[in-house]
DNA sequence: TCGATGCATCTTGTATGCATCATGTGTCCG
DNA sequence: CGGACACATGATGCATACAAGATGCATCGA
């Protein structure tokens, strides 16, 4: 029935719409309807409807009864909320790692180092795509080390939201990537010696820099 | 057209099913179908389907394509995950409050004291229902003080899951409520003097006691 | 007897139709 | 000229219909 793709219609509607929101083709403040998306994707309204519900749960859409779906605009307060939650979750990961047996910490630190190598290479090669992916991987790896599905899922949703904020933001400037990499390295260094306070402080620095880059102050 | 209730069919399906999962009428491991629920509530499958999707997102159901919906059984690891997340969020609230201006802290402390009064009265009256509601109110008030919608929503979902764990647990014992109340009071006391470390430690005690009550160890 | 196959049945996935509700507009009345 | 009302329009909410996948069981063959 879908014919082309092996994915269900619901999944296609979800991914397509989400992608269009995240990459900015559907700007915040836009009002879209089930019918529009259904027509575009050549499917009925039913799967689109389910995709919309999911996107609303993720905070990307806001549904208005009988009126349409509003693409939620990124507000400064949302930026704050996302960053606060990120600091909480990632900071927890750092603390927990530093309190964990040496061996466990070493494993994660090793994984993080590997990611940093990739990120360094991406920076040298000027591959923004790979750099962003490595950045994502870095933070995900950190949060995964907590082994808590609930926190991991929350974090994934936070990353998605942040993605959208980044592109709304000012140009990152050519020095941003280097700064990001340096901040990552600083965090891993603190982690390497098991200094939780230091690691958290550096995480805070990293997220503050992110905030500045996003809200411009 | 449902006529009777002012709620939408989707909302009724969601609340009813959720309630039946949380109160144990639908035990973990059960396989339910959209049709069953739709018949029971005298509505079509469509709104039930949407309710199921929502419940899956909350971690209460797990949907299997073309097979049905599994009521997720509470696992020990889920208990750990929920409690870890709760400690993280509530602990953050305590820390943030202690770092906030005296006035802000006093406002929240006042609200918490008010809730404790209610809880004390409920305990004296032997009103379990009211006691549980006050307990819920206590923790929600704490988390609300963070003013972060993302964390608040996460917390709400955590509380729901915990609800279900409690009833699967051993009898609470007549002394449990008193212990809970005492632990709450201890937390608020530490908060009153702005001692974040102390408050967090007491929160940890409280949640540990909860874990013992739930998993029995 | 045991395993493979085909079918009946059940459930979901999607499409479609209709009723309802919200909104904007044009007209009529003051 | 201004405001209220009736209606056209468009969207969702829900019901229903149908197709397709998954499962269990009976049946058949070795």
UniProtKB/TrEMBL annotation, chains A, B:
SMART domains linked: FCD (SM00895), HTH_GNTR (SM00345)
One Gene Ontology molecular-function label: DNA-binding transcription factor activity
UniProt keyword Transcription, yes or no: yes
HTH gntR-type domain ranges (all copies): 7-74
Keyword ATP-binding: no
Any Pfam family matching the protein: FCD
Keywords: DNA-binding, Transcription, Transcription regulation
Family matches, as InterPro entries: GntR_C (IPR011711), TF_FadR/GntR_C (IPR008920), Tscrpt_reg_HTH_GntR (IPR000524), WH-like_DNA-bd_sf (IPR036388), WH_DNA-bd_sf (IPR036390)
Record protein name field: DNA-binding GntR family transcriptional regulator
Organism of provenance: Actinomycetospora succinea
